[in-house]
């Protein structure tokens, strides 16, 4: 059983070349504070209450990288449980302080499960 704690973040995608316009919208219009750092795939991260909004450029297609991310209590148990049920696990770039993996549901939707390092 996967022990979900909370939504940690979600990633939305913008068209290729739209980063400057997106940054202006999210910082000037929505007034979200940007989280500084060298984020994976050139993403921008913003603080949205107690969760994060991640934004990155993507060309689109059937297997988008858009996803919600859920903080859970035991990533190893969750991975083993999903693998035993035939779910393919995907890994991505490393984020300091967070262990994580991705999987897709039968319809192609992408999900991230993560656990903060203690």
Number of helical elements: 2
How many domain modules?
1
User: Remind me, CATH topology?
Assistant: 2,3-Dihydroxybiphenyl 1,2-Dioxygenase, domain 1
How would you write the strand order of the largest sheet?
2-3-4-1-5-7-6
Helical fraction equals 10-25%
Shape annotation: globular
Average pLDDT number: 90
Low-confidence stretches: none
Spatial gap, N to C terminus: 21 Å
Q: Which CATH C-level class is it?
A: Alpha Beta
The CATH homology group name: 2,3-Dihydroxybiphenyl 1,2-Dioxygenase, domain 1
In N-to-C order, the SSE pattern is EHEEEEHEE
Domain VOC: 6-116
Protein name: Phage portal protein
Organism: Spirosoma profusum
InterPro entries: Glyas_Bleomycin-R_OHBP_Dase, Glyas_Fos-R_dOase_dom, VOC_core
Description:
The protein is an alpha/beta fold. It has one domain (4-116): 2,3-Dihydroxybiphenyl 1,2-Dioxygenase, domain 1. 18% of the residues lie in helices and 38% in strands. It is built from two helices and seven strands, in the order βαββββαββ. It has helices at residues 19-29, 75-84, and strands spanning 4-14, 34-35, 44-48, 51-57, 67-72, 98-104, 110-116. The chain has a seven-stranded mixed β-sheet, with helices on one face. A hairpin with an 8-residue loop joins β2 (34-35) and β3. The longest helix is centred in the first third of the chain and has 11 residues, at 19-29. The radius of gyration is 15 Å and the shape is globular. The model has no long low-confidence stretch (mean pLDDT 90). Residues 6-116 form the VOC domain. Pfam families: Glyoxalase. This is Phage portal protein. InterPro entries: Glyas_Bleomycin-R_OHBP_Dase, Glyas_Fos-R_dOase_dom, VOC_core.
